[in-house]
Design brief:
Number of helices: 16
Number of strands: 0
Largest sheet: none
CATH topology: Growth Hormone, Chain: A
CATH class: Mainly Alpha
Shape: globular
Radius of gyration: 21 Å
Helix content: over 70%
Length: 419
């Protein structure tokens, strides 16, 4: 059997030295832009109990509005991220920021129920498809190989910080000025991301023509044939199924818990708890990446994902506990369901062929956020079937359904060889 030789990495020519932003400045500004651009990502889940009331949404409808965000992302990401193998990722990132401005302003001024919410949340998902992974690719294209692992850890960990900021800022603005203002602020965040990225990402020339240029942009067969990359992509799918489903429903879960303990509502604000939990999760993601450098990545992913699965199997059945205990459990749960994120990302990127890095990241996002969409929808479906979230048993089954993904992830990872 004749093997096709792996193509050497095609270096993108850099602009003159005087126009190159310092690497530390580039990483910091891209991380800030990532957080700012994510203000609208969890704006709807943060206010889920409110929207279910004012728009009379069922659990299934709420699940679809949560899930359509990731469906929009999943539909756009294979094209947008694969294009970064053929053109400067900066251009795609800036276009994603513009879509973010439009989608969040549209939700703020025109959303009035289930169908309009679906449209603008889908557009918002497309915006994330144009910024999150293309932003990481733009960063990798501008950094020396030695600086890439730690930069990947910080950038991907800031995704958790962005989720926290989305919960926290949305909650604060909602209680002060209403949900419309919260979504308008999310549009402003996308505007800030646009300005920062345009300032620090010096334009690069397109990559030289290679064998990759002759491959159809949606042909992921060469990526799938890479055993290690495939394994980490599958692990990422299990990770995102659980993480995004949990993120989408934890606020509503805490609201149910507070309803069982009258008088606690003023002392504990679920959106603030999720913001704190997200920061803890971000630090856990960075810590998990550092541990994966010092110990076998496969082992660390199995341990972190396994503990996360165990927590998800039990946390819903604890819904009747004192709210203080529930807050602690939610924070610990966030630490574990987010703790393997950067390690998995690094595994995908370092396993990818250099000339197929964009396509590999595209397949990762396609699978990961497709799983995220299904996870949030499935959780809403389980919630409805088990009683609509009006009992501890209902919430127990809902979170247990999320934990199944972690269990599958652990089984998959144990069957692969780590690098």
């Amino acid at each position: 059997m004749t093997m096709t030789p792996i193509q050497p990495e095609k270096k993108m020519p850099l602009p003159p030295a005087g126009g190159v932003t310092h690497p530390v400045v580039t990483v910091v500004c891209l991380c800030v832009a990532e957080v700012a651009g994510m203000m609208g990502v969890f704006a709807f889940p943060a206010l889920l109990p409110h929207f279910m009331q004012i728009w009379d949404l069922s659990g299934n409808q709420a699940g679809w509005i949560n899930g359509i965000y990731f469906i929009g992302y999943t539909g756009a990401v294979p094209v947008l991220t694969s294009l970064t193998d053929r053109m400067d990722a900066r251009r795609i990132y800036l276009a994603g920021c513009v879509i973010g401005i439009i989608s969040n302003l549209g939700f703020a001024f025109f959303a009035g129920g289930f169908w309009t919410a679906l449209i603008f949340r889908a557009l918002c998902g497309i915006s994330l498809a144009g910024t999150f992974i293309p932003g990481l690719k733009a960063l990798m294209d501008r950094l020396a190989p030695a600086a890439q692992p730690r930069s990947i850890a910080f950038y991907t960990a800031c995704f958790g910080l962005g989720m926290s900021a989305s919960f926290f800022v949305t909650g604060k603005l909602f209680y002060a000025w209403g949900w419309e203002t919260a979504f308008a602020a999310a549009a402003a965040g996308s505007g800030l991301a646009l300005v920062l990225a345009a300032a620090v990402l010096t334009p690069l020339a397109p990559p030289a023509s290679s064998a990759t240029s002759n491959r159809h942009i949606l042909d992921f067969r060469p990526v799938w044939q890479n055993r290690n990359a495939r394994a980490y992509i599958l692990a990422y799918m299990c990770h995102t199924w659980e993480m995004f489903a949990a993120r989408a429903w934890l606020v509503a879960f805490m609201a149910f818990n507070l309803s069982l303990h009258p008088g606690s509502e003023g002392r504990l604000i679920p959106t603030t708890v999720m913001a704190v939990a997200g920061i803890a999760g971000m630090l856990a993601s960075i810590g998990g990446a550092e541990l994966a450098v010092r110990f076998p990545r496969k082992t660390m992913v199995i341990l972190i994902m396994g503990v996360s699965g165990l927590i998800s199997m039990t946390i819903g059945f604890c819904a009747g506990l004192n709210p203080t205990w529930i807050v602690g459990l939610c924070i610990v749960y966030t630490i574990f369901f987010q703790g393997d994120s950067a390690a998995i990302h690094a595994g995908v990127i370092t396993s990818a062929r250099p000339d197929l890095r964009g396509a590999t990241m595209a397949l990762q996002s396609l699978g990961g956020f497709g799983a995220a969409a299904l996870g949030t929808i499935a959780a809403g479906w389980v919630l409805d079937l088990s009683g609509g979230g009006h009992s501890v048993f209902s919430w127990g089954l809902t979170f247990a359904s999320m934990g199944v993904a972690s269990v599958i992830g652990v089984i998959l990872v144990t069957r692969i060889a780590d690098r």
